[in-house]
Design goal:
By secondary structure, the protein is mainly β. The chain has strands at residues 3-5, 14-15, 28-30, 36-38, 57-59, 64-67, 81-83, 88-91, 105-107, 112-113, 129-131. The strands form two sheets. A six-stranded parallel sheet has the order 1-3-5-7-9-11, with no helix packed on it. Strands 2-4-6-8-10 form a five-stranded parallel sheet, with no helix packed on it.
Length: 133
């Protein structure tokens, strides 16, 4: 499976299983507007650890996710788009989220994040869109 697109599937709800971290060979995961709740499992950083593909798009926008953003997600080193906007995430932005050299889109708006943007965000030379309002 290369693409998992369940966008706007209101029939899905509940927590996101940690087993999603076992998914291999996926390039796009889009679960925006799916009524997800609970936390983002740290195991998500393991996606594709045994596969040949790289996850490039991670979209969990407009859900009810809460808690902090796990630093393990930074292991998804080929991300070009990371969107967790309009959830209930709190805490600060992990500093290692700037370890995505190909990142072009970073949407964090509409959460309860605290602190400042990591200074290293200036190293994201491919970044085109950033919204952390």
């Amino acid at each position: 499976m290369e693409v998992l697109d369940l966008n706007e599937n209101g029939g899905l709800s509940g927590t996101l299983p940690a087993e999603f971290g076992n998914i291999n060979n996926i390039e796009v995961i889009n679960m925006a507007w799916t009524k997800r709740e609970g936390t983002l499992p740290s195991e998500l950083g393991n996606m594709n650890s045994n596969g040949y593909s790289w996850l490039t798009e991670f979209n969990f926008a407009n859900n009810n996710l809460e808690g902090t953003m796990p630093s393990e997600i930074a292991q998804l080193s080929a991300l070009r788009m990371f969107d967790v906007s309009f959830n209930k995430l709190s805490g600060s932005i992990p500093q290692n989220y700037t370890d995505w050299p190909q990142l072009q889109v970073l949407y964090l708006q509409g959460n309860s994040l605290e602190g400042s943007l990591p200074e290293e965000i200036g190293k994201l030379t491919d970044l085109r869109y950033l919204n952390a309002s």
